[in-house]
């Protein structure tokens, strides 16, 4: 019986790649990559010649059965996404679940992921938080906002740059103009920055400076009336 490795890859700076990740990718029999063209550049940089197969959200339902069979016959297989840790808003969950159901060992290596540095950089409470990933595009979006408006824990969301201004405007609408927000973009890259302030302040900033790159948004949880009185 082989094993499935979930291997994080850099979200920007190639120095974030771990020695262990490089070793595992060199030693496994096959690498499953979200985009073989993107991952090919990474593997070439670290002189990794292991064969790759494509594994993404559009084909993962069809390929899982064959992957499971290959691992059961003794092959060790690694899964990587374009950036960060597999299965965090990326393909990986379905394959991991299938391996668990078939008593196949899964080894997830620690490594780069975007939301942890964004959460810590925000300065918001991080003893309790929820990861929302990408909000629904249309159906269910308003319902989700109404639920999150009452959430007391710090919230983490992934937002595409061309939808950030719209999303921040929705924060003002559903959470209130004074709700604290922190937007981190291009984490670990050359133009990394974090903008903090109220929902209204951050909205005004990005209305005048259109955002670019990968974005993680942190939203402070709702503060109860009792907590407000205690703060005073």
UniProtKB/TrEMBL annotation:
GO molecular function: rRNA (cytosine-2'-O-)-methyltransferase activity
Alphabetized SUPFAM superfamilies for the sequence: Tetrapyrrole methylase (SSF53790)
Classification via Gene3D superfamilies: Cobalt-precorrin-4 Transmethylase, Domain 1, Methyltransferase, Cobalt-precorrin-4 Transmethylase, Domain 2
Subcellular location: Cytoplasm
Catalytic activity of the protein: cytidine(1402) in 16S rRNA + S-adenosyl-L-methionine = 2'-O-methylcytidine(1402) in 16S rRNA + S-adenosyl-L-homocysteine + H(+)
Keywords: Cytoplasm, Methyltransferase, rRNA processing, S-adenosyl-L-methionine, Transferase
Domain Tetrapyrrole methylase: 3-202
A Pfam family annotated for this UniProt entry: TP_methylase
Domain of life, per lineage: Bacteria
Major subcellular site: cytoplasm
InterPro entries membership: 4pyrrol_Mease (IPR000878), 4pyrrol_Methylase_sf (IPR035996), 4pyrrole_Mease_sub1 (IPR014777), 4pyrrole_Mease_sub2 (IPR014776), rRNA_ssu_MeTfrase_I (IPR008189), SAM_MeTrfase_RsmI_CS (IPR018063)
GO CC entries: cytoplasm
Enzyme class: transferase
EC number: 2.1.1.198
Family under the similarity heading: Belongs to the methyltransferase superfamily. RsmI family.
HAMAP family tied to this protein: 16SrRNA_methyltr_I
Function statement: Catalyzes the 2'-O-methylation of the ribose of cytidine 1402 (C1402) in 16S rRNA.
Protein name stated in the entry: Ribosomal RNA small subunit methyltransferase I
UniProt organism field: Flavobacterium swingsii
Phylogenetic placement of the source organism: Bacteria, Pseudomonadati, Bacteroidota, Flavobacteriia, Flavobacteriales
